[in-house]
C-alpha cells in the first residue's frame, strides 16, 4: 500500500481542490468552526484527510473535486478583488457574467488597476500560480505623470529597496512620452502589493493608469473590459506541464473494412482521335439570318 496515500492531504488543500475557497479562506473557515470530519468539528488546519474521510462544511457534504478550469478576465478599474468588501465597494465577483461556477482569483489587482485577472475553480491551483517560485512573469503597461530617468529604469533590473522593502529584478522600458505623461512597459515575477506604483513613485513618477497585459503565458489580448474567456483545457494542460505526449502513430483504419484507397488516375488512351481533314469550313447560312 502506498504510504504517501495513507498520509492523505491537508484539509485546507482538500477544500481548495473542491473549488469552495482558497486555502487561506479554508483556514479561516476551520478557525470559525465551519468544517467537520466524521461529524466532529475541527479547530486546526493541521489535519490530514484521506478520500474515505467524510468532510462537511456548514453541515453540507464536501463536493467532489471538479476538473480544473481557468478563465481570463478583463478586470475594469473600480472593482476590488475580494469576495466581500467591508467598505461596500463593488467587487470583481459580483460583476462577473452569469453562468460561471464559483471561482477564486489568481493574485489580485488593486481597485484602480485594470487588465488581465486569472480566475479558477481550483483554489490549490490559484495558490500555486501566485507563488513567485512558479516563475511566471507578470507584464504591465503603465501611464505615469513624469519622465523617469532611463538609467534609473535600467537599474531596476538589479532589484531595489524602497521604504525598507526589497523588490526583485524588474525589466522596465520607456515606450513613449505623451504630454506630461510617460507610457512604460514593466515585467516582474514577484508581484508584491502595489509594486509597480511604488517603484515608479520611487523614480519620481505618479502612476495614473495601470494595465496588466499578461500573467505568465496567458495574455489579455483583445478581451473587452468585463469579458471572460475560458482557457481551453488542452492549453491549460500544456502550460501546467500535464499534457499527454503527442502520438506519432498513423491513424488506424476504420473498423469493419479496409481504409478507402485513393482512386487511381485514369490512363490516357494511346490512340489519338483522328484529325478532321483540312479544308475550308462549310458555311452555315442559318447563323447570318
Q: In oligomeric terms, what are we looking at?
A: single chain
Please give the CATH class of the largest domain: Alpha Beta
Give me the Rg, rounded.
31 Å
Helix content class: 10-25%
Tell me what the CATH architecture of the largest domain is: 2-Layer Sandwich
Q: Could you state the order of secondary-structure elements as H and E?
A: HEHHEEEEEEHEEHEHEEEEHEEEH
- Main beta sheet, described? 9 strands, mixed
Measure the end-to-end span.
102 Å
As a percent range, the share of strand residues is 25-35%
* Strands, total number: 17
The secondary structure category is alpha+beta
The low-confidence runs, each spanning 5 or more residues with pLDDT under 50, are 1-5, 243-262, 269-289
CATH topology of the largest domain: Alpha-Beta Plaits
Compute the number of structural domains. 3
Compute the average pLDDT.
83
The CATH H-level homologous superfamily of the largest domain: Pseudouridine synthase I, catalytic domain, N-terminal subdomain
Note the overall shape: elongated
Number of helices: 8
